[in-house]
Amino acid sequence: MKTKIKMNPTIQIKKIYNFLLVVFVASLLYACAIPKLTKKNQNNKTPLAYKILNDTTNTKSSDTNNIAKTNWKVFFSDQNLVALIDTALQNNQELNIFLQEINNAQNEIKARKGAYLPFVNGGAMIGVDKSARYTRMGAVDEYVNIKDDKKIPVVLGNMGFGVNASWQVDIWRQLRNAKQASVNRYLASIEGRNFLVTNLVANVATAYYELMALDNQLDILDKNIIILQNALKIVNLEKTAGQVTELAVRRFQAEVSKNRSHKYYIQQQIVETENQINFLLGRFPQPIIRSSSTFNDLKLQEIFAGIPSQLLANRPDIRQAEQEIIANKLDIKVAKANFYPTFNITSSVGFEAFDPQYLITTPKSMFFNLLGGLVAPLVNRNAIKAQYYNANARQIQSVYHYERTILNGYVEVANQLAKIDNLSNSFTAKKEQVDALNRSVNIVINLFKSARADYVEILLTQRDAIESKMDLIEVKKEQLNAIVKMYQVLGGGWQ
């Protein structure tokens, strides 16, 4: 006969508890398993100096002096331009729209900060309840006496008030990291605003110099039209005297009409440029005050480009990209914390009774509870993994964007340094051409008067002279705009 061995129930329960504990710990370890990621660290190394070939201007690119540190009110000497920029910084709609984005980012910080603090709610309730007769609660109500053979009413009122609280304990700093990421995005939005200010200052200045150049080109056309009209009168007299034919008269008339047509084209450009400036200033079209007569006398500022590493501190777009990297790195930590267990605490306390006279009876009508829970993801973690991988992908994207922004800044500065150099040489050569053609015009007119040159030579020489003068104005405008662009790409204008 076999003997059955009976096991102590206490030992059985203990083994079950141990087994469940092992399963629970193993599940937590599985839940906390973090997938491996491919990370990328940003490279912010820059060349020691800007490499400029054939630099014959007064640009300085090997020392730490930098015009980006100069306030725009000091950088621009034209007070009309300073007044326009000041108005634009106050009224420009795009800038004001972006300021609201900064307010949104600031409010996001407050929301994130409140997330890791306890949530406490208060409330009150009142209602009635009737249990069905042939249910457990209905049967109990039928046979249970409240007091002195008085049974529970069929329709029972209920009322109460109290407070309840919930708190997610930020063990893994998930909520704090999310808040800090919002702080960095707020800082990034401020740098975005600074970048917008830099562009706005440069756009107003560029349009202003464009307007002054058009005024001077219009003045050259007006003077040339007067000269051609006087020449036309002379040719008409010479035709009457039989010295020239009708062809000469028609050629001079055609040249006058051509210049008049070009004049209307420039007038339209002036209107559009004025309206462009007014748009940047956030106002309806009105005349732009400027001193175009001093355009040719405007002196070019001496350029100090500093060293490339200063771009990291001066250019708002680079600083903005850097803040985005920091925020995205924190997003990875936030997504990583989703794999860990979360510890939540909930509690409530208040008074509840079926009759108002018992509502604040202590302690019989008082209730309270306190619950702490540990929750970890076990099954179907694909959504958490996807968030984790996406956070890492955004971080890598921000690193590439940061490096690209640095490279773009370096290239822009190098291009402008070369452009300033080449425009300086071009202006010198163009000025020599204008001087030579002005002398040629005087010579050919004298030759024509003495019948040693025909009207065609006058027309061609006069046409070349006016074109060279227009080109000289254009080169001067490009020089001024290149200085403004250099100020912009170095990160100036937002201080």
Summarize the structure in words:
It is a single chain. The chain is an alpha+beta fold. It is 61% helix and 11% strand. The protein is built from eleven helices and six strands. The protein has helices spanning 9-31, 72-75, 79-91, 93-115, 136-143, 174-240, 246-280, 311-314, 316-337, 382-449, 455-489; strands at 119-129, 145-147, 150-151, 156-169, 342-353, 366-375. The strands form two sheets. A four-stranded antiparallel beta sheet has the order 1-4-5-6, with no helix packed on it. A two-stranded antiparallel ribbon has the order 2-3. Helix 4 (93-115) packs antiparallel against helix 6, helix 6 (174-240) packs antiparallel against helix 7 (246-280) and helix 6 (174-240) runs antiparallel to helix 11.
**Estimated helix fraction:** 55-70%
Label the overall shape. Answer: elongated
**Contiguous uncertain segments of 5+ residues:** none
Report Rg: 41 Å
Strand order of the largest sheet: 1-4-5-6
Q: Number of helical segments?
A: 11
Give the tally of β-strands.
6
Q: What is the average per-residue confidence, as pLDDT, rounded to a whole number?
A: 86
Strand fraction equals 5-15%
Largest sheet: 4 strands, antiparallel
SSE arrangement, N to C: HHHHEHEEEHHHHEEHH
Question: Characteristics of this structure?
Answer:
alpha+beta; 61% helix; two-stranded antiparallel ribbon; 4-stranded antiparallel sheet; single chain; 495 residues
What is the strand and helix layout of this fold?
Layout: H1 9-31, H2 72-75, H3 79-91, H4 93-115, E1 119-129, H5 136-143, E2 145-147, E3 150-151, E4 156-169, H6 174-240, H7 246-280, H8 311-314, H9 316-337, E5 342-353, E6 366-375, H10 382-449, H11 455-489
Antiparallel strand pairs: 1-4, 2-3, 4-5, 5-6
Helix pairs in contact: 3-6, 4-6, 6-7, 6-9, 6-11, 9-10, 10-11
